[in-house]
């Protein structure tokens, strides 16, 4: 018995990570390094999948943080990613494969990958107009519920064009045909001197945030109210969830001027800006009256909503609310970073190191979701 105890103590001394309940991914050199992680999910095999848009790879790590393999990579063939900053992945309903989609100028198909990293197949989509998919979920009947953006609509002003980007939640059947638009918005998102591009973003555009519930209803918000609508698959509103988020704040002249200064100061290509970007100086009044009060929402394994609120001057970090499906607060935390996810066995947080590099903190879950979020907050506070 003493020998066994001594062996365990020795293992913990040699491998201290075994004694910890959390680890960080992305701070190693080589294939395990992450430059711009945009998405993290726990796979059906228990491994951790992270999409790094800088490398065009979905990188796979073991439940203990060891690098295993990568899939995708830059390219134009099946199994490769054509547009790095516009790819999004998920897992098939039967949990057997991973699939990914791409945004404008990317592949016009859905790519299916074996979990081993091998390309399985592609599903070419059928649509009569230019489109891009930014996020999707596969349903039981092998169809997809997808957030689809369509090519912009220019709106002529006296000295410039405002560009609207129609966005819809669409059901795509297993043959790749797009069906009825369940939810649709047409927010103004960009501004340009030209009708056909060379545009820059404008701030405070409404959001397009949704999550699919277990009964196949959809919670949706544009971030312009603290009450979220619930839709059925036909697009009919069947309910409302009153959330604890504060009401959206109005956009002020000071907000707009602060955004302009920051944009100009940080724009790297000065020549391009002088030719095209100076259009923002003519944008003297915001077309959006309110600032969205949220930028993310997901359904957790415990059947809670995890809602990401917008940070204000009184917050120590980005606020997150864990609520039940009636909108009652179960737990609120504030995390320095820009993303938070809860999976079956982990809580993932996007955090920054001292050089402002983005890393993924992986906290191994021990109990219920409120307790795990409290532990995460404590871990980040001590770092």
Task: Provide a descriptive summary of the structure in words.
With 383 residues, the protein is mainly beta. Helices cover 12% and strands 41% of the residues. It has helices at 2-14, 253-266, 270-275, 369-382, and strands at 22-25, 37-42, 48-52, 57-61, 67-72, 88-91, 97-101, 109-114, 119-124, 131-138, 144-150, 153-156, 161-164, 167-172, 178-185, 188-192, 200-201, 209-212, 218-221, 227-231, 237-242, 249-250, 290-291, 294-299, 305-309, 318-323, 329-335, 339-342, 346-352, 358-364. Strands 1-30-29-28 form a four-stranded antiparallel beta sheet, covered by helices on one side. Strand 7 and strand 8 form a beta hairpin. It starts with a helix and ends with a helix.
List its salient traits.
383 residues, mainly beta, 4 helices
Helix-strand layout with pairing:
Elements: H1 2-14, E1 22-25, E2 37-42, E3 48-52, E4 57-61, E5 67-72, E6 88-91, E7 97-101, E8 109-114, E9 119-124, E10 131-138, E11 144-150, E12 153-156, E13 161-164, E14 167-172, E15 178-185, E16 188-192, E17 200-201, E18 209-212, E19 218-221, E20 227-231, E21 237-242, E22 249-250, H2 253-266, H3 270-275, E23 290-291, E24 294-299, E25 305-309, E26 318-323, E27 329-335, E28 339-342, E29 346-352, E30 358-364, H4 369-382
Antiparallel strand pairs: 1-30, 2-3, 3-4, 4-5, 6-7, 7-8, 8-9, 10-11, 11-14, 12-13, 13-16, 14-15, 16-17, 18-19, 19-20, 20-21, 22-23, 24-25, 25-26, 26-27, 28-29, 29-30
């Amino acid at each position: 018995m003493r020998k066994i105890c001594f062996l365990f103590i020795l293992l913990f001394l040699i491998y201290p990570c075994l004694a910890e309940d959390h680890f960080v991914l992305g701070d190693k050199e080589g294939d395990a390094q992450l430059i711009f992680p945009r998405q993290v999910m726990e796979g059906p095999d228990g491994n951790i999948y992270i999409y790094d848009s800088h490398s065009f790879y979905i990188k796979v790590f073991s439940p203990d943080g060891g690098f295993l393999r990568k899939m995708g990579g830059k390219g134009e063939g099946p199994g490769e990613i054509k547009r790095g900053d516009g790819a999004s992945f998920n897992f098939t309903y039967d949990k057997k494969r991973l699939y990914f989609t791409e945004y404008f100028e990317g592949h016009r198909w859905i790519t299916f990958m074996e979990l081993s990293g091998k390309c399985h197949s592609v599903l070419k989509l059928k649509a009569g107009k230019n489109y891009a998919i930014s996020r999707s979920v596969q349903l039981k009947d092998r169809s997809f519920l997808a957030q689809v953006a369509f090519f912009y609509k220019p709106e002529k002003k006296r000295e410039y064009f405002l560009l609207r980007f129609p966005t819809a939640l669409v059901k795509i059947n297993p043959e790749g045909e797009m069906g009825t638009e369940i939810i649709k918005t047409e927010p103004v998102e960009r501004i340009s001197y030209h009708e056909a591009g060379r545009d820059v973003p404008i701030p405070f555009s409404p959001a397009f945030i949704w999550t699919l519930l277990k009964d196949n209803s959809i919670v949706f918000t544009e971030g312009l109210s603290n009450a979220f609508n619930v839709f059925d698959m036909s697009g009919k509103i069947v309910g409302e969830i009153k959330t604890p988020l504060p009401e959206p704040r109005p956009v002020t002249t000071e907000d707009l001027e602060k955004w302009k200064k920051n944009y100009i100061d940080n724009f790297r290509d000065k020549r391009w800006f002088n030719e095209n970007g100076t259009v923002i100086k003519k944008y003297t009044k915001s077309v959006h009256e309110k600032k969205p009060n949220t930028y993310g929402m997901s359904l957790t394994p415990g059947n809670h909503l995890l809602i990401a609120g917008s940070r204000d001057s009184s917050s120590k970090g980005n606020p997150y609310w864990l609520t039940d499906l009636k909108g009652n607060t179960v737990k609120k935390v504030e995390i320095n970073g820009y993303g938070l996810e809860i999976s079956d066995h982990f809580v993932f947080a996007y955090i920054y190191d001292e050089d402002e590099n983005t890393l993924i903190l992986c906290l191994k879950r021990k109990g219920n979701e409120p307790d795990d979020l409290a532990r995460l907050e404590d871990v980040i506070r001590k770092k």
